[in-house]
Amino acid sequence: MDSNHNAQTVKQKYVYWEWRTLILLMIGYALFYFVRKNFSIVMPALESELGISKARLGLFLTLNGIIYGVSRFINGFLADRVSRRKMMATGLLLSAVVNLFIGLSPEMNGLFHFLDSEGKATMAMVVFIGSLWLINGYTQGMGYPPCGALMARWIKPSELALKQSIWNSSHSIGAGLVAILCGTVILKFFGYSSWQWCFYIPAILAIFGSAMLFFGLRDDPASVGLPDPEQLDDHLAGKEVETETKEFKDLAYNRLVGPMVFQNRYVWILALTNVFVYVIRFTILDWGSTFLTQYKGLPIGKASIVVALSEIAGGIIGTLLAGWATDKFFKGKSHQTCFIGLLGATIMFALFWIMPKDWNLLGVICIIMASFFVYMPQALIGVAASNQSTKRVGMPFSG
After folding, report:
1. Per-residue CA distances from 244 to 148, 239, 385 (Å)
2. Is the backbone of residue 331 left (phi > 0), alpha (psi -120 to 50) or beta?
C-alpha cells in the first residue's frame, strides 16, 4: 500500500514539474522573440525618424542572423556542460539589456554626437545600434539550446514529439504578440516618434521573464528528488535505456565526423532545405511590416496585424496540421509534408508578388497562407533529420 502510494505521489509530482518546465520554457522562449523580432517591426520608424537606410537595416539583420547561427552551434555544446537554467535566463537578460541601450541611444547624443542638426542618426549612432544588434544575435543563441536539452531531460520519450510541437508554438506566439504590441499599439497610436518604447517595453518584460526562468526552472528531475522520465514512461517498460554518458560520447563523434550526420547526404539536403525555409519565414517576419507599409500602402497598425496573424494563425495552425497530416496520411514520412509546405509557400509568394497593389485583402490572405505553409517544414525538418540520423541530433534544426 505504501509503495503504491509513494509511486502515485512521485508521478503526481513529476507531472507538475513536467508541465511547469514546459510552460516556463514556452513563456521564456516567446519573450526571446519579444527582444528579437521587435527590431523588424520598428524598422519603418527607424528609417523615417532617424534616416537609417534599408541597406544598413538589412545588414544589421543579416549579420545578426549569421551570429545567431554561430551562437546556436556554440551554445548547443555548452548546454551539455553548464546549467541550462542559468544559460537561458542569462541570455534573455542580456538581450533585454541590449534592447534598453538601443532605446536609450538618442539620450546619449550629448556624449557621442549620435544625432545631427536635423535629428537624424549620424554614422556613430548607426554603428552603435548595429553593434548592439550583433551582440543580440549571440545572446539570442542562448535561448534554444537550453530548451532542447531541458525538454529531453524532463519529458517522457513517448511524449517528447507531441510536447515539443506544443512548445514550438512559442515561436509564433512571441513573434505575433510583439508585432501587435509594437506595431498596432505603440507605433499606431503614438506614432513613429515613440519607437524607443518598442525596445523599452519588451526589454522590461524580458527582465521579468529572465527572473522567472532563473527561479522557476530546474536543470533535471534529480534536482527535485525525481527519477529520470525514462523510468516513469510506461511505453519503455522492460526496455533497456541507454545511459547518457555512452550516448553523449557516441553523439559527439556522430555530430563531428560520424557517418550519421556529416557523411549523410540526406541530412545535408535537409539542412540546405532549411536555409530556404528560413529565407521565406524571415522575409515575412523581418521585412513584412516594411514591405506592406511602403510598397503595399498599408498603415503600420494594419501591417503589424498581418504579420501577427501570419505568425499566430498561420504559424500555429500550420505547425499542428503538419504533425497531424504526417501521422494521418504520410505514415510518419515528414519529408513529404515538408515538400507540400514548401510548394504551397512558393505558390502563395508568387501570387502575392504578381497581385496588383490595391488588392490588399487577397494579398493579406496570401501572406498568411505563405506563413501557414512554411511552418510545415519549419516544424518537421528536425523530425526528418532525426529519422535520417538519430533522434537527438534533429532538434537543432528548429528554433
Report:
1. 15, 15, 21
2. left
- What is the spatial distance between Cα 362 and Cα 63, in angstroms, rounded to a whole number? 33
- Extract the C-alpha cell encoding 254: 556522430
Quote the percentage of the chain above a pLDDT of 70: 85
Domain ranges of the chain: 1-241, 247-399
CA atoms within 13 Å, Cβ hemisphere of 362: 11
pLDDT bin (cut points 50, 70, 90) of residue 257 is very low
Closest CA to 207 of 20, 22, 28, 24: 28
Same fold across 1-241 and 247-399: yes
**Residues with Cβ within 8 Å of residue 296, at least 6 apart in sequence:** 303, 357, 360, 363
Q: How far apart are the first and last CA of the chain?
A: 45
Query: What is the per-residue pLDDT across 3-61, written as a single tens digit (0 to 9) for each?
Result: 666 778 888 898 899 999 999 999 999 999 999 999 989 999 999 999 999 899 989 98
* Cα distances (angstroms) measured from residue 120 to each of 47, 53, 203: 9, 11, 24
pTM of the model: 0.81
Our CA dihedral for 169, 67, 147, 95, rounded to 10 degrees, sits at: -80
Which neighbouring-strand residues pair with 121?
A: 115
The label of the residue with cell 497562407 reads 369
Dump pLDDT digits (tens) for 373-383.
988 887 777 66
Query: Which numeric CATH code is attached to 247-399?
Result: 1.20.1250.20
Using 50, 70 and 90 to split pLDDT, how confident is the model at 76?
confident
Beta bridge partners of 115: 121
Fold exhibited by the domain 1-241: Growth Hormone; Chain: A; (1.20.1250)
Going by C-alpha positions, the residue among 181, 151, 183, 128 that lies closest to residue 79 is: 151
